[in-house]
Amino acid sequence: MEWNAETLKILSECFLHTLSPNHEPRRQAESYLSEASDKPNFGLAVLRLVAETNIDDQIRISAAVNFKNHLKSRWISVETNKNHRGNNNPDAPVLSPIDDTEKEQIKQLILPLMLSASPRIQSQLSEALVVIGKHDFPKAWPALLPQIVTSLRQGMENNDYVTVNGILGTANSIFKKFRYQYKTNDLLLDLKYCLDGLAAPLLEVFMRTANVIDSMVGGGAVTAANLKPLMESQRLCCRIFFSLNFMEIPEFFEDHMKEWMGEFKKYLTSTYPALEGGGGDGLALVDDLRAAVCENISLYLERYEEEFAGYLKDFALAVWTLLVGVSSATGRDRLTITAIKFLTTISTSVHHNLFAGADVLQQICQSIVIPNARLREEDEELFEFNYVEFVRRDIEGSDVDTRRRIACELLKGIATNYKTEVQSIVVEQIKNMLAVFNANPAENWRDKDCAIYLVVSLATRKAGGTSASTDLVDVGEFFGSVIIPEIQSQSGSAMLKAGALKFFTVFRNEIPKQTAVGLMGDVVRFLASESNVVHSYAANCVEKLLLIKDGGQRRFNSTDINPFLPILMTNLFNALKFPESEENSYVMKCIMRVLGVADFSQEVAGHCITGLTHLLSEVCKNPKNPVYNHYLFEAVAGLVGRVCEKDPSLIPTFEASIFPILQYILGQNVTEFWPYAFQLLAQLVNLNKPPLPASYMSIFELLLATETWKGHANTPALVQLLQAYLKKAPDELSQGGRLGQVLGIFQKLVDIPSTEELGFYVLNTIIENLRYDVIAPFVTHIWTALFTKLMQSPKVKFIKCMVIYMSLFLVKYGPPALTDSINAIQNDGKLLGSIIEQFWIPHLKSIIGTIELKLTAVASTRLICESTVLLDPAAAATWGKMLNSIVTLLSRPEEERVDEDPEVPEIGENVGYSASFVRLHNAGKKDEDPVSDIRDPKEFLVRSLARLSAMSPGRYPTIIQQSLDPANQTALLQLCSTYNCTIV
C-alpha cells in the first residue's frame, strides 16, 4: 500500500465510517480494512495517518486502535502466530506477518510519534510499542533504549512531564518481562543491557523529580495540577525499579541504595495536602506511589535481606505509622494491602523481634488487624449487588488481596513466633466484640460478624484434608453459643447468617452428627432466602456435610437426608429461580451431591428428572457457565444411574425425558455439550438389556459415521459410547459391515499418539464381547496394524497398551489362537517369540492398574505354562526371562517397577489440539475384570508352575536358578511356601 494523498483520503473515510451508527457503511469500512490489512505497508500507512495532525482526532484515534491490533496479530512470524492461535482456535486463519522492511520503518516512527501525540492516541501507540518490544527488544531493536534515554533527558531539561511520563510508562510496560519469568541466560543478558543503559538515567530522573517536588512543597506554591505529573513520574520510576531489581540486586542499585531508600522513606512519611486534602484521584495518586514503594521494600526484604537490614527498622516504623492512619479509610485498599504485606514479611523473618513487645502486639491488633477485618460499606455493597464476586472471594479464597484476608495473614505471621501472646489478645478482642453485639444485636451485628470472621480466618486446615481446627475458641462451645442461635433465628442480618453458615461449613468435621442433623431443617430453610449469598452458602454447607467421612464411611447417609428430602429438593430447585441465581454452581453442586446420597421414591425421582431436564433445555439455548453446566450433567447422570439401577422399569420414563434434550444438543450443534451428551447416551445404553430399542440403533449408525469423529474433544466420550454399544449389541455389530467400520475407527485412533490409548479401549471391548469366529476375518488386519505401528514408533505407552491387549486376547481365546494368528503373519512362524522377547518381557513389569496387573500376570502365566512357543526346550532362556518379569510384577511395589520417564510428545503432535473433554464421574462405566474367575494371580502362578513342573521334574528349577535374579528367586520361594506349592 503506497502512501499518497489518495491513500490518506481512503483510509480517513474508512476509519470515519467505522464509527458510524449505521450498520452498512460500518460493515463496508471494516470489510475494506480487513482486506487491506493483507497488503504490504498497511500498518505503516495507518501509522502515518495517525501522524497527520490536520485529520480529525476521532479518525486518528480509531486508526491508532486499528494499528495496535494490526501489530498484535501480525508482528510475529507465521509459525508463532499459528501456534498462538492454535491453542485456542485451531481453525482460525493464519495471518501473514509484517515484512522486515516495514517493521524497521515502523520502529523508526513510533516512539517520536507517541511522545508528540494527544493522551488518547499516546496510550494506543504505547501499547503498540510494547507489542513490538515484547518480541524484538532488545536484540532486534537496539535503537530503542538509546531513544528512550535521550527522550527522557530532553523531557527533563524542558520540564516536560508529559514526555517523561509517556516514556516511563512505556518503559515500565516493556520491562515487566523481567518479573515472574524463569531466569535464563538470555533473559539475564537482556536485563544487563537494560541496566547498563537505563539504571543511571532512571536514578537521575527520580532524584531530579524529587528535588522539584521538595522545592515546590517547601516553597508553599504548590498546586494539585503541578504536583500530579511529578508524583506519577515517581510512581513509574518505582515500578521500573521493581522490574529491574526483581531477578537479582544489580550492582548499580546496591551502590546507590542510600539515594533510593531515602526517597522511598520520604514518600511514606511525608504528606501532600495539595493532593491528599481533596481526596479523589489526588489521594489515589499519592497512595499508588506509596504502594509502589511498599512493594519495592518488600522485594528487598524478601530477596536482599542482608543489604536491606540497615534500613528495615526505619521502614517498619514508617509503614506502621502510615497504616494506623489509613486502616479505617475507604478507597485506600491497595496501599493498605501492600503495607500490611510488608509487615507480614517482617513478622515471619529473622527480624520478627521488632514486634516482640506486648504493647506492640496489642497495637497491631487494635489499630491494624481489627479495623481491616471489620465489614466495610464496600463489602456490604458487594454482598448485596455482586454476590458472585463476594462468594468467589469469601468461599473460594480469591480474597488474598483484600483487607480482611491480609489483616488476618499479618496476625498469622506474628503468631508464628508469638502464638501465645497473639492468641490471648485475639481471644480478648473476640469476647469484647461479642459483648458489644449482645448489648445491641440489631445495631452491632458487624461486631459479631468480625468475631466469627476472625475465628474462621485464623483456623488451621490440615494439609490435603477438609477438617479445620482452632485454638482461639472451643469450637463446640462457640458453635452452641454463637452460631446455632444465628442459624435458628428467623431475623437478623443476612450477612451474619452467611457468616454463621460459613463457620458451620468450615468446622463441619468438629460438629457432632446429632447436632448437625438437628440443624439440617434450618439450613434447608436458608435455601429459600432471597439473598443470593445466603442460599449459596446454605447449598455449600449441605453439599460439604454430605462429603464428610468417618473411617472411610460417609457420616450422613440416606436415612439422615430422607426426612428433609422433599423440602430440600424443592428449595434447591426454587433457589435457581431467584434473579442472578439461575445458574448458581453451588446450588447445582448441592443437587448433584444430594442425588448421590438420598433414596428416591418414583414420585420424587420423576420430579427431579423433570426439573433437571427443564434446566438442561434452558442452558442448551445459551451455554455460558461451564461449572454449573458440568454439575447439571453430573446430577442427571447420578440420578439416572442410581434410580435406574435400582428400578430398571423406570428406564423408559427417564429416556422419554432425556432423549429430546440429547437430540436437541446433537441436532442443533450445541458442541459444548456433545461430550456430555455422548456420555449420557453411553450410560443409558449400559443400563439397557439386549436387544437395544430401535431408537438406540439409529444413533449407532450416526456413531459409525466418519464425520462424527472429527472433533478431538468428543473422542473420549464417543469411545465410551462405542464401548457401550459393543457390549450391549454384539450381534448387531457383526451385521452390515459394522465391525469393519468399528475397526476403521480403531485404526484411526491408534495411529494418533494422543488417542492411541482410546483405540485400544475400542479393540479390547471388541475382544471382550465378540466370539472368535466373528473377528477371525479381521485378526490378521488387526495384528498387522499394531505391529506396523510398533516397528515405526515403539513408544512405551503404546507397547504397554499392546501387552494388555495381547493378554486379553489370550485369556479370551486361548494361547493357541494367539500363537497361530500372530505367527500366520510371517512364514517362519517365529513372530510371537520375537514380540515376547523384545516387547512383552521388558515392559510387563511396568504395567499398572489393579485389573491390568492381574490380567497381564494371568496371561503371562498361561503363556509360560500352556504356549508351545515358550514350552519348546529351545526357548528355555525366554521362558526364564518371562517368569522373572512375572515375579517382578507380582512381588514388587509400583514405585520399584515403574521407572521410565514420562514420554515428551514430539513437537507439533498436539499443536492445535483443544482438549475440552470433561468426564462425567456419575456416567462412567464400571471396570470389569476379564479374569474374574481367578481370585489371586500369585496363587495362580505358583499352582500353574507346580502342575507344569510335575510333568517334567528337574527341568524348571534349573531354568529358574539361571534366569531369575536373586530377589525374585526369594520372592518365588516365599510364594510357593505361602500357597503350599512345590516346583520340582
Description:
- With 984 residues, this protein is an all-alpha fold.
- The protein contains 50 helices and 4 strands.
- The strands form 2 sheets. It has a two-stranded antiparallel sheet with strand order 1-2.
- Helix 1 (5-17) packs across helix 2 (23-36).
- The radius of gyration is 36 Å and the shape is globular.
Summarize the structure.
The chain is mostly helical. The protein has a two-stranded antiparallel sheet with strand order 1-2. A two-stranded antiparallel sheet has the order 3-4. A hairpin with a 2-residue loop joins strand 3 and strand 4 (553-554).
Poorly predicted segments? 78-91, 900-915
Q: Judging from the principal axes of the Cα atoms, what is the shape?
A: globular
* Strand portion: under 5%
Helical amount: over 70%
Through-space gap between termini: 91 Å
Structural class: mainly alpha
* Neighbour order of strands in the largest sheet: 1-2
| Nearest-integer average pLDDT | 90
Largest sheet: 2 strands, antiparallel
Radius of gyration: 36 Å
Number of helices: 50
* DSSP E strands, number: 4
Keywords for this structure?
984 residues, mainly alpha, two-stranded antiparallel sheet, two-stranded antiparallel ribbon, 50 helices, globular
Helices and strands in order:
Layout: H1 5-17, H2 23-36, H3 42-51, H4 57-74, H5 78-86, H6 100-116, H7 119-136, H8 144-157, H9 161-175, H10 185-219, H11 224-245, H12 251-255, H13 257-269, H14 273-276, H15 280-303, H16 305-326, H17 333-347, H18 358-373, H19 377-385, H20 387-394, H21 403-415, H22 419-439, H23 445-457, E1 460-461, E2 468-469, H24 475-488, H25 494-506, H26 513-526, H27 532-545, E3 549-550, E4 553-554, H28 558-561, H29 565-575, H30 585-595, H31 602-621, H32 626-646, H33 651-667, H34 674-687, H35 694-704, H36 715-728, H37 730-733, H38 738-751, H39 756-769, H40 772-792, H41 796-813, H42 815-823, H43 831-844, H44 850-866, H45 868-871, H46 876-891, H47 894-897, H48 937-951, H49 955-963, H50 966-978
Antiparallel strand pairs: 1-2, 3-4
